[in-house]
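Study this chain:
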Amino acid sequence: EFISEMNERFDHISETLLKIENEKGDKVLLDSLYRDIHTIKGDVQLFNLEGASLLSHTMEGTLEASRGLDHFEMESSHISTLLMCVDLLKSCIVNPHEENTMKEVHFMVSLLIPFNQIQVKEKKELKIVPKETPPEIEKSPVLNQPPVTQHSESEKPDTSIRVQVSLLDKLMTLMGEMVIVRNQVLQYSNKTDDLEFLNLSQKLDVVTSELQEETMKTRMQPIGNILTKFQRVVRDLSGSLDKKINLNLFGVETELDKTLIEAVKDPLTHIVRNACDHGIEMPELRIKSGKPEMGTITIKAYHEGGQVIVDIADDGKGLNREKLLKKAVEKGIVDSSKAEKMTDREVHALIFAPGFSTAEKVTNVSGRGVGMDVVKSNIEKIGGMVDISSSEGYGTKITLKIPLTLAIVPAMIIRSDNHRFAIPQVKLVELVRIERSSIEYIQGRPVYRLRGNILPLLCLKEVLGTGKAFELEDAINIVVLNSDTHLFGMVVDEILDTADIVVKPLARFLKSISIYSGATVLGDGSVAFIMDIVGIAQKHLGITTHEDLRAVSEKYSNEYDADAEEREYVLVGLGSSAKHAIPLSVVNRMEEVKTSSIEISGHQRVIRYRGVILKLLNLNEVLGYNSKKEKEEITQVVVINSDDQMFGLEVDQIIDVLTTRDFLDDSVSTHEAIVGNLVTPNEIIVVVDVDKINEMTQTKKILRSLPDLSTVSSKILFVEDTEVIRTKVARGLIESGYQVEVAVDGVDALRKVAEHKCNFDLIISDIEMPKMNGYDFVRKIRSIGQLKEIPIIAFTTKNTPADLQQAKAAGFTTFLEKNKGKLLNLLISECISTNRRKVV
């Protein structure tokens, strides 16, 4: 109890010192500071703590002279020294008998003495101390105390008592059991007509609710208990970083469960430290950009929607999109092709990725790439959420959404088959009831157009593994949920009611099931699992697909692109719920042919068409659909003319011709023969990539024509520094039948060449790589006699004529951009078959 009381007083002293520094000359604050230090001195002397007594007595002495001045101003160095003394006092109380502690005390006393002498000198110059005052009275700390006013704390009656936290925990547990009993009584009261019992159950409900509310308050503490301590953190960091930073706090009286306050303390500390180090610029840079020399960090806490919201905003340089993407691609966190399509919101969220840091060098404040990912995981662990928004040049804002308590939470009870589940209301956005016909599909994934935005859907039965997706009635219920700011809908059998539930932890053997976060006892005594919304989204939607779908919603929610040219498509029906479109520009004719007229040439289905043999491809088979159409006498064929080659696409139905300016979105595609989706006001239409289908068939023809390639497995060295691209391309080459050796840069590649004794048939190399770039690597290769004529493909993002010329000069055989990676197999086949050093 003594240590707890001392820690509170130490915190109060630190706050007072920081206020004195900001509000210069406030005598009330000085008297309060002196009184706190004097009280500490008396308390530690009572416990015979010699080090703490000496230090507090010296601290008190440095304030003596200032109290006698009409106007005083404490130096910043004086305040800094006193703050260090406060930290040392804590050590003196916890470890009073350590030899090192006493050495530090004597050192701090020596640092304080000059401030004492300066103050005394100033006091003599102002002639405020009466000469007739006896020395012994001057030295008496008791007589020198400020007068106690009528309203001093000492005269106030005690209005609070200290209670063990374990007692409060037990009280909360019993309160939870009482809520369960209350729910069971209310459940039973719905089955009886006994008016007296109904009245008693209603009274029990009212009393329990009030008791629950008051019991919850016993664990609630103002968030200011931790926020005010950041004043000291910011002050210390601004000094060590040579920056001028001011911290503004709002809503410090906002209350939060004690357990959650402890849980958010470390995440908040890391965010504030990051804002000081990364966010706020150096004073000279701020002046150049037209900002005040002093940067500002603002922390605002408030209640909203049954949660505590904490906003941490700074007016610093903000986040640089290009810098974030460059670092993310370098570390293999995102694919370079995907990086270009990412929204600003997704790019800013990269700072929460494990191991991510934009710091140029590691400091004692930050730069190691650990911290922000822990912030996110720790906040999500307690059922909260983290969001970030930034404007380059103007600052960054991080928002934490934290539940009020973890013990008793409001929830929505839903049903699937005969089982009930609870969904925490903090994750619930809205409830929607729609007709089954309103569900659309993107590449076979169900979505719903909610007020113009695309909402991905999950069926709870499919999540639980108890049934197939959308085996439903005509009208279906959708619970719209929020998972880490990503919205998705869950289709449930029935929405029952809301209830205050008592969260019970899962047994150890159930904790590995990611779709549940806990369990609760319902009013009828049955057990219901609490759904883990974040876990469900990650497991069943997947981060990439989820972000892609959300990007469609945010970026292309507009129904019409007025600036785009009109495009024409042939709409066809296939073995999918979505309509498919073929660009009219490549359509030669639309025909109906007799099924009996289809012949077989080898393994290829063909028809005689206008004097030539026309190859037939079944579009359902190409896209992996099962045709819904039964075998009929007439087959509908779309005749395609692509690259001066004609072939026919068999479809289930030719529907219509569509002329539109609607946006063609290519962010969601699960098949290489699909170019993207037309996002129209009424539906989503999948657009077929006819050129890709033609390319696939031509590739097979070329590979068949190449001598010996079907029987001889060529050996390839692939040099690429980005792990994601390296893994993806290497896997594709291996699947194509090549032997592949990979290297992470030019130096590693030369090592692999030596290890394999130059035994490679072809080399594929990136250009921009660490240690040794592609140009230098190829020059080294061309200097090796055995490899002078080996085909080398430059596989890179550099695509200007100057880049091409430089590649040719260095010794590359040919040049391929990474965004055209689908042509890589074709280019490899050509290089190996001809073995010519010709740059194209």
